[in-house]
């Protein structure tokens, strides 16, 4: 699906969608709708959430009314919901890689626009909560500023016009099907970053489908590359998770020769929804044992097509035994790649070993090595161990 070089060189402007692309709006949508539905004697069905993605507020409201059989007109429903949403705009988090991408475009002088089906006033309210965003866009177009919202091309055509450029010079980044359709109808190049997992097959009309904004490769489009990758790794704001090691699918070591000490994903649903699926690395602390290098995948393991999102940390150390039930603490410091499917089990295994080599080497860099001393990892080490100057502590110096 790579775009031929001559076309790629034409690209000079980027147009970004807001909800689901830069902002984790879906989270707030369910936070508002859940209690509202409960009050009306209904139950929120997260499996229906994808139907709202990319719609204008009016269209989304109509879908909810219909799906749940609520006794309101769309206007009535919107007038009840709007104040609830207005209170939430500043609670919407930026998606992984959003700040990085916006800063990158700005610092490299690539003009960028925001083009969203949301009304202009909502866009302004949402981006005002994120430092440096408003100043980074050379144009902002809302759904109420054109005749028809996405999937009509109007919003994107208007954004190009306001940036004084032509559609073939524009690269659109979009998470929704209506958005991708709109971008293609506008005659633009489109990268899809689907916000609903496991539905990537539906995005075949996009020029490229990626898993998250961390995977944008601007050089593929003739734009300046990111310069923050170090030895095949991308440093991220570290995050910390921990808990007892639980039974996984029982095929990590048996089938792959790669044991993964699974953590109970349901305990981390908030952290997990904040981070995209993918292959990460960092440090692992095991109570009574020590601190070890670690490489892991988070997600649905496309090769096995799991229905549950799992956390699969492989500790880069030979233990020679199981440690189910022990407290495992992780600090995740860098990103390697998105999860992928593979043509054979051998190629999956080969790739995971490559990930391990990358993590092993990168964790020696001071930038990543310093997190080995995180108190969070040590808290899990039994107190008497540290008092005795036991192996686990000596190990981690
Ligand atoms: P499961 O499907 O139950 O997770 P695996 O085949 O993935 O089973 O094996 C994982 C288990 O192996 C871990 O829970 C842990 O007890 C043990 N184990 C042994 N060595 C390691 C290691 N280096 N990294 C992760 N887990 C290991
Ligand atoms: N599974 C996949 O289907 N695709 C992947 O790209 C993938 N990458 C992985 C990378 C690492 C570092 C690890 C530890 C696991 C990865 N897995 C991947 C998950 C692997 O399939 C999983 O651990 C087994 O299914 C065991 O449950
Ligand atoms: Mg496992």
UniProtKB/TrEMBL annotation:
Keywords: ATP-binding, Flavoprotein, FMN, Nucleotide-binding, Transferase. Its EC number is 2.7.1.26. One of its GO terms (biological process) is riboflavin biosynthetic process. It holds the Pfam family HAD_2. The keyword ATP-binding applies. It comes from the Eukaryota. Gene3D superfamilies: HAD superfamily/HAD-like, Putative phosphatase, domain 2, Riboflavin kinase-like. InterPro entries: HAD-like_sf (IPR036412), HAD-SF_hydro_IA (IPR006439), HAD_2 (IPR041492), HAD_sf (IPR023214), PGP-like_dom2 (IPR023198), Riboflavin_kinase (IPR023468), Riboflavin_kinase_bac/euk (IPR015865), Riboflavin_kinase_dom_sf (IPR023465). The keyword Disulfide bond does not apply. Pathway: Cofactor biosynthesis; FMN biosynthesis; FMN from riboflavin (ATP route): step 1/1. Residues 234-364 form the Riboflavin kinase domain. GO terms for molecular function: ATP binding; riboflavin kinase activity. SMART domains: Flavokinase. This is riboflavin kinase. It comes from Oryza punctata. The lineage of its organism: Eukaryota, Viridiplantae, Streptophyta, Embryophyta, Tracheophyta.
